[in-house]
């Protein structure tokens, strides 16, 4: 996505009061990624919204982002917690595994991300997770449960009904012409929205 679109859409959802913004850009050159992350951090500071960097602990540390989200192949959560300190946010991908979530909680993760629950263009090959997993995780762990993968305005109510604390969305908002209108269609009864860009 061109930078001007990225920043304008990010500002729209920040103005709307999302709970967190996660920067996820897998194929950008390091300099471009750093520049965009810094610009997003500036925007997030204006709206008092945390910025989490996806899969790049060093970038999160370098720009002093509010935290990092690590997948299973992105390094040690224990090491990340040590480097981040206790005041920064550490999120962990748990796919459809309560065992991975248990390990992440022990390693100091602040939230546990499960999914994909629905077909997803962002994570098309991720293992599918059953909706019941959300309630099981909610009952077992003392961490917020974030639900990822194909979440849109038509199915968000289902994940909240199972106990999700947050939802992470990408294409449902950033793939639209008007993210503000798309955001208004979401079923957000009580949970903040984590936006991945």
Account of the protein in words:
The chain is α/β, with parallel strands linked by helices. The protein has a single domain (3-196), classed as Aldolase class I (TIM Barrel, Alpha-Beta Barrel). It has nine helices and eight strands. The chain has an eight-stranded parallel barrel with strand order 1-2-3-4-5-6-7-8, surrounded by six helices. Strand 3 (67-70), helix 4 (77-84) and strand 4 (89-95) form a beta-alpha-beta unit. The longest helix is centred in the N-terminal third of the chain and has 17 residues, at 30-46. The N and C termini lie close together (9 Å). The mean pLDDT is 93.
Q: Please write the string of helix (H) and strand (E) elements.
A: HEHEHEHEHEHEHEHHE
Strand percent estimate = 15-25%
Mean pLDDT: 93
> Any idea what the CATH superfamily is called?
Aldolase class I
Cα distance, first to last residue? 9 Å
Radius of gyration: 16 Å
CATH-derived architecture: Alpha-Beta Barrel
CATH topology: TIM Barrel
The portion of residues assigned to helices is 40-55%
Number of domains: 1
Structural class: alpha/beta
